[in-house]
Every structure is written in C-alpha cells, then in structure tokens.
Amino acid sequence: xxxxxxxxxxxxxxxxxxxxxxxxxxxxxxxxxxxxxxxxxxxxxxxxxxxxxxxxxxxxxxxxxxxxxxxxxxxxxxxxxxxxxxxxxxxxxxxxxxxxxxxxxxxxxxxxxxxxxxxxxxxxxxxxxxxxxx
Length: 134
Fold this sequence. Notes:
The protein has strands at about 10-25, 25-40, 45-60, 70-80, 85, 90, 95, 100-105, 110-115, 115-130. It is an all-beta fold and about 130 residues long. Strands 1, 2, 3, 4, 5, 6, 7, 8, 9 and 10 form a ten-stranded antiparallel beta sheet that branches.
C-alpha cells in the first residue's frame, strides 16, 4: 500500500475516467488512473498516478448526463461562494457548498454537473505508481 492519502494532490488533466454512475441525486466518477503529486516531508514531490480515486457529487439535479469515459483534457471545480475554479484538489477532500464540476474529455466530450457537495476518496486497495516520464 502507498503512503498517507493526505499527502496527495490530484490534477484533472491527463487523469483517466473509468466510468460514471448515477443513483438518484448522486453522481460518482470512478478513475482508473488519477494524476497526482505525492508530497512527503523532507523529500522532493513525486508525480504519478493512483488507482482507486472516486469523486462523489451529491445534490445533482435528476437527469444529469453520465455518458463519458477516457482521458481528461481538463477539469475544474467551480465554488459558488468564491467563484474560484479549482484545477487541483487535495485527496481526500470534501467541499460542502453549491459547486459545479466540469470535465473536458480528450475525445471532445464535456460534462457539467451542479451539486451541493463533492467528496473525493481513495478506495481500499488504492496504490501510487510513480511516473517515469522524462
């Protein structure tokens, strides 16, 4: 198992969405590979991927689109309270306020959901794989 999840910072760009699931007012985004930076005290940050990241949106209006998968070109969380557009998120994390999650896929699809809460968690058995890209 990898290190403490609190030291991970997720980036939307180049992450891979495995699937999307909708159950009533909840949409869950399952990632097959989530691009992260791992920060360890006293060491240089490492970049790579984690398997097992889930983003759960709650309070999504009924009928939300959930038909896309693949590599993300970009993405952000827009917070209603500040108007801030977050392109990186600490994992695990929770945002309890009106927000919009925007996902832009490499193949051209775009999805936007309004929600009242976003919860990002790592599932049991998650692991970190360092990127060896030069």
